[in-house]
Design a protein that fits this description.
Layout lengths: L7 H6 L2 H22 L4 H10 L4 H11 L2 H13 L12 H37 L4 E6 L2 E7 H26 L1 E2 L13 H11 L2 E2 L10 H27 L7 E2 L19 H21 L11 H29 L2 E2 L1 H8 L8 H10 L4 H17 L4 H6 L2 H6 L2 H7 L2 H4 L3 H9 L1
Parallel strand pairs: 3-4
Antiparallel strand pairs: 1-2, 5-6
Helix pairs in contact: 2-3, 2-6, 2-8, 4-5, 6-7, 6-11, 7-9, 7-19, 9-10, 9-11, 10-11, 13-14
Length: 430
């Protein structure tokens, strides 16, 4: 998908070489179970352990003829093992191998993604502490609301990533399930002890009630979790994109020496990394939707899910791995402007404290309706220019009657407004 940036370890999880290697192990452990039961001779296991091998090229060559990937693989293995290969795959169906292998791959990918999130959380945590007490304006509907700190904003990211990490851990366990129960899951041709042995070796659990396949609600759950993580990254990326706008300029992506922003406009410094992440999040969500469509298969199984999973699952894992890595870099290299944040905070001449003034007047016995009308009148006038909100209400007889000069000063005290920042951040980072 994005070969220049792909983590080779994540890409390797989804390679043909890895897939066939897992298939080889599944068949090995299954044969071991058969030998323990007396359903296959020890010589067969010895021959398999000594000779079993495959060639990706040869498997693909056979598959072009037989039009079946597992049969092509087994045929290639038999070419190495010899006559005793007849005991390989005894009592099993193709999905026993394919679904169990997919579980191993998804588990490996899930564990890698967990590490990615943990690394990103460390980077975010460092910036939370760095900007813990850096005031900035909070916005709702894109409009100035009340003051907050950039550290609080980032602490929200940290807390969200922590929730997503918990979800991913749970989803990884949900998908860590395989099957070796035969054509429709009834163990008609294979003893359940063989399945138990294989799952133990692969660090998986056996599907509770299998059909010919592992139930696809498990896969949908995992993919929904990936979509959720991608959506969180998108939320953070959108925030940075807004903060980098020329009119805002509170935080910007790092800009490397020699980097160019536009072929036509040399002054441009575009948020290309976070824009890229927003696009990839759409892709990961689309893959999740496709996997939800896989849940409803015909009877004990059809093959409509297979083509989807061969594309959606690897691509979603690789894309999200890249997204987490890229966003970690964005966070670490984010250029933050505390001075610009303060300038923007003061842009509306103190109107961001209107809510505090409203409450202060109500606490002094002024009706909410009267207090709201009074504060709104002065706030809108201050927003339009001239005197600040504090200056306007300081000259209002009704306000002066209700509040002392010291109380009015407290209403516009930024430090008082942000006095619980430490508590919020400590709770988020705990």
């Amino acid at each position: 998908m994005i070969p220049r940036y792909t983590n080779p370890e994540m890409a390797e999880v989804w390679s043909d070489q890895t897939r066939y290697t897992i298939w080889l192990d599944i068949e090995r452990h299954a044969l071991e179970g058969l030998v323990k039961l007396g359903a296959a001779p020890a010589e067969a296991l010895k021959a398999y352990n000594e000779k079993a091998s495959f060639s990706v090229t040869r498997v693909q060559e056979i598959e072009r003829e037989v039009k079946h990937d597992v049969i092509a693989f087994l045929t290639n293995v038999a070419e190495h093992v010899g006559p005793l290969s007849r005991y390989v795959h005894r009592g099993m169906t193709s999905s026993d191998v394919v679904d169990t292998c997919l579980a191993v791959q998804m588990r490996r990918a899930g564990l890698m993604l967990q590490k990615r999130i943990e690394t990103l959380m460390k980077s975010v945590r460092e910036r939370v502490i760095e900007f813990k007490h850096t005031p900035c304006i909070g916005r709702s509907h894109g409009i100035h609301a009340e003051p907050t700190t950039f550290g609080v904003k980032l602490a929200g990211w940290y807390a969200e990533l922590d929730r997503q990490l918990k979800r991913l851990k749970a989803a990884t366990e949900t998908i860590s399930v395989g099957k070796l129960s035969g054509a429709v899951g009834t163990y008609a041709g294979i003893d359940p002890s063989v399945e138990e042995l294989v799952m133990q070796h692969l660090d998986l659990k056996a599907e509770t009630v299998a059909t010919q396949v592992v139930s696809r609600d498990r896969h949908a759950d995992f993919m929904a979790c990936l979509a959720g993580v991608a959506s969180s990254v998108e939320r953070f990326a959108v925030e940075i994109r807004h903060l980098q706008r020329t009119e805002v300029r509170e935080a910007m992506e790092g800009f490397a020496p020699g980097q160019k922003g536009s072929s036509a406009m040399p002054h441009k410094r575009n948020p290309i990394l976070t824009e890229n992440l927003c696009g990839l999040a759409r892709l990961v969500r689309s893959y999740a939707q496709a996997c939800f469509e896989n849940v409803a298969l015909w009877h004990e199984r059809d093959i409509s899910h297979s083509s989807v999973e061969r594309v959606a699952v690897p691509d979603a894992c690789i894309a999200l791995d890249f997204m987490l890595s890229r966003f970690d870099s964005v966070v670490r290299n984010l250029v933050v402007s505390p001075q610009r944040m303060l300038e923007n905070l003061e842009l509306t001449r103190g109107t961001v404290f209107s809510g505090h003034l409203l409450v202060a007047l109500i606490d002094k016995g002024v009706s909410r309706e009267d207090a709201y009308a009074l504060v709104q009148k002065h706030a809108l006038a201050a927003w339009d220019g001239g005197a600040t909100l504090a200056e306007r209400v300081g000259q209002d007889a009704l306000v002066s009657k209700a509040l002392t000069a010291e109380e009015l000063k407290g209403v516009f005290d930024l430090a008082r407004h942000l006095r619980r920042v430490d508590m919020i951040i400590e709770r988020a980072l705990a």
